[in-house]
Amino acid sequence: MKKVGVAILGLGVVGGGTYKILKEHRELYQKSHKIDIVVEAVLERDIEKAVALGVEREKVAANIQEICSNPDVDIVVEVMGGVEPAKTFVLDCLHAGKSVVTSNKELFCKYNHELEVAAKKNHCGLFYEASCVGGVPVIRALLDNLQGNKILSMIGIINGTTNYILTKMSAEGVSYQEVLKEAQKLGYAEANPTADVEGYDAAYKLSILSSLAFHTKIPFSKIYREGITEISVTDIEYGKKFGYVLKLLATGKNGDNGIEVRVHPAFIKNSHPLASVNDSYNAVYITGDCVEDVMLYGRGAGALPTGSAIVGDIIYCATHSNYQYSTFKNTAEASPSTKFIENFESAYYIRLNAADKPGVLAKVSSVFSKCGISVAQMSQEGQTGEDGCVPLIFITHTTRENNVKKAVSLIDASEDIAKVAAVIRVVE
Amino acid sequence: MKKVGVAILGLGVVGGGTYKILKEHRELYQKSHKIDIVVEAVLERDIEKAVALGVEREKVAANIQEICSNPDVDIVVEVMGGVEPAKTFVLDCLHAGKSVVTSNKELFCKYNHELEVAAKKNHCGLFYEASCVGGVPVIRALLDNLQGNKILSMIGIINGTTNYILTKMSAEGVSYQEVLKEAQKLGYAEANPTADVEGYDAAYKLSILSSLAFHTKIPFSKIYREGITEISVTDIEYGKKFGYVLKLLATGKNGDNGIEVRVHPAFIKNSHPLASVNDSYNAVYITGDCVEDVMLYGRGAGALPTGSAIVGDIIYCATHSNYQYSTFKNTAEASPSTKFIENFESAYYIRLNAADKPGVLAKVSSVFSKCGISVAQMSQEGQTGEDGCVPLIFITHTTRENNVKKAVSLIDASEDIAKVAAVIRVVE
Fold this sequence. Notes:
The structure is a homodimer of 428-residue chains. Chain A has 428 residues and is α/β, with parallel strands linked by helices. Chain A contains 15 helices and 16 strands. In chain A, helix 1 packs across helix 13, helix 6 packs across helix 11 (200-214) and helix 8 crosses helix 9 (176-186). The first copy, chain A, is elongated. Chains A and B meet through helix 2, helix 7, strand 11 and helix 13 of A and helix 2, helix 7, strand 11 and helix 13 of B.
C-alpha cells in the first residue's frame, strides 16, 4: 500500500481538526483509496498542545527545515494563516519538493503567483480548496466542473462570522455590538474581529474565486469592500417589510463592459436561495452561460468542515500525479486588458430622516430625478419623532453607484430637506 | 496549442447542446485553457438534423468504426442514452484508445465495471459527471472533495420531470394526470414518462452517487423504488397543514447496521433547504462525518446545463493525463460484505378514511400500538363524507417500514374501522 507522509504547520482549530480526521480515518482511507496516510511531523510552538492532541513528542518539529529535510514527508499542510512566516515556510517546502495543501486565503490571494511558480518549478502539487468557504467544494467546481462556461456572475455569503451576526440581528432584533460580544464569547468571532466584520476575509476569498471564475487574476486591491459595523437593526426590520433579507454579499460580475468585484452588505429578496443561508452556513450562487444557476451550500468554517477540504486535497494529491498549474494564468497582477467597473449598477434602499413638513417629498424626488435615480417603491414609516423628522424609505430601480453618491451628498447638503440615515444596495 | 478532437454520438437535446457550447466557446477555451477543441465527427442517423446544427456534411460518420479509426478524434462524447447500442459503441471507442465522456446514467449504473475495466486497460479516460444531476457538480464533489469523509447520508431531488410535476401540483392544486399532460406538451416530460415518474431515472442516479459516496458498488437492484403516479393533491394539501412539502426523494444512508437506498415520494419540513428546490431544479443534500451538511443545487437537466457538465469533463480530460479508475472498486456487483437494510426507519404520514362512529380512534390506536408505532400528531380533517367516513391523519414518530406495512394490512382487513387512503414517508 502506498504510504503518504503528511506534515501539519500549525495545530490551531483547522490544524487540529485535520490531525483528528487523518488519525481517526486512517483505516478508512486504506480501504477506500489504498493509501496509508500518516502524520509524520507537525510544526507547533506549543508542544504540550500537540501532545494533548495525540502527537508523539518526537514528531513535533523544531523548525521548518526539519520538515523540509524529512524524507517521510510528502505533503505539507499549511494552516497557520497570515502572510508570514506562512509564505516563507510554504516556499521552503515547495523548494524541498513537498506538495502543499493550504487553507490560507490571505496568502493565496496575495501570493498565488509566486507560490504557483515555485510549485511548477519543483513539480509539486499546490492545493487550496480549504482557502475558500470551508467544506463547500467551490474551488474544484470552478476549476474542473464549470470551466466550460463563461461565468457571468457569482454571489456569495462567504464569511461565517458576519452571517452569524446578521442572522442573529435579524432574528432577535439585537444590535450589532451586542451580537458581536456574544459571538466573541461563543468563539464565533475573534477578539479582534476586523478581518471578518470589515469584509477583508470575504474579499480575500472573492479574489481567489473570481480569479478562477473569470480566468484572469483579480487582485485584492480591485475589490470594493464595506463591512457590517454600521448596520442597524432598524434597517434590517424596514427591509423585511419590503421582503428583503440583509446579508454580507461578495459579488463578482463579468459583463460585456468589464468585471466588477465587491464585498458589502446588501438586501436580497427573501425568495432568493441565498436568503435562507443562515447562521454560520455559507453559500456561493454561480451563474454561467451554459449551466445557468448553481448554488453550493454548506459549512464555511470550522475544524472538521475545513479539515474535510484539506483532507480531500491530501487524498487528491496522493492519488493524482499530474498537477495542474496556471489556474490564475500565473500573473501577479491583473492583466492590463482586464477592465474593472467601479461605478457599478445596482438598486438601492435609501432611508432618510425627513422634516415632516410640506414640500419635502417633492424636493427629495427632484434630487433623485436630477441624479438619474428612478424610485421603484417608497414608504413613510412610523410617526414624527421628537426631532420633527419622519423616516422615509425609498427603493430605487437599478441605477449607478455614482448617481446615488451624488444624490446623498445633495440631500445631506440641503439644510431643510432631510438627512440620509442609511444607504444599502439591493440585489434585484 | 494542443488540438483536441471530439466526436459526439447522438445529436439529441444534450448532444446538440454540447455541440453548440463547443462551437461557440472555441475561442474562449483557446484563451482559458490553451486548447483548441474541435468537433471532428458526429454519429447521427438524421444527417439533416446534424447539418441544420452547423455540422459539415463530411463530418457525419456513417458508423462507429469511422469514429474509432479517425486519428483526429481524441475524446468521444456518448449522449445516446439507453444500454444498446451505446454500450457497444463506448467499448469500441475505449478499445480504439479514445477517452469517453458520457451522460448515460442507465449505462453507467449497470455496466460501469465493464467500462472502467476497458478504460483502464486501454489507458483512456472515462468521465460521467453529466450522468447525474445535469450541471450540478456532484460526481466530482464526491470523488475529489468529500472523499475524506465517511458520508452518512445523501438526500437528493434528482429528477427534474417529477419535481416539476410535484411543484405544479402543490402550487396550483391540479391533479397528477393534468400536470403530466401539460408537462408533456411543454417537453418537460417524455411521451412515455415511465422512466421519470416511476423513479427509474432517479434510481439509476442514486446507484451511481451512493456507490461513490459509500465507496462500494450499490447496484440498481438494491434500490427500493416507488414513483409519484399515485400521489394525490389531497395529501399534498394536508401535508402543508403539518408544515410539509412533498418531493420525490432519492435517499442513501450509510449507518452502523448497513446501507439503505431508496427512491420514493416523501414529505419534508418546509424549513429544510431541499423543500425550496422547485420546478425542474435539482439538489443533493449530503451529510459527512467531517464536512457536516453540504447542498449542491442547480439545473438537473437540459441541453446547456448538461452540456456544461460534458464540456467540463472534456476540458478536464484534455488537460489531465493521469486518469483515475476504480471509483466503484471495479466490482460488477455489491461486495458480499455490504449489508443492505430493507426494513428501514422513517416517520410516516398515514391518511385513513375512518367510519365516523364511536370507538374507531381507539381501535386504530390499538393497531398502531400493537405494531410498535407511536403517533406524534393526529388530526381529523373536514366533515363526514357521503360514505359516512371522515379523514383521519396521523404523523408517526420514527418507526420501521415493516411495522407500518403490518398496521396497514391490519386496518385494511378490519371491516369496521377504516381504510388506508395514503401512506407517505416523512423525513424528520
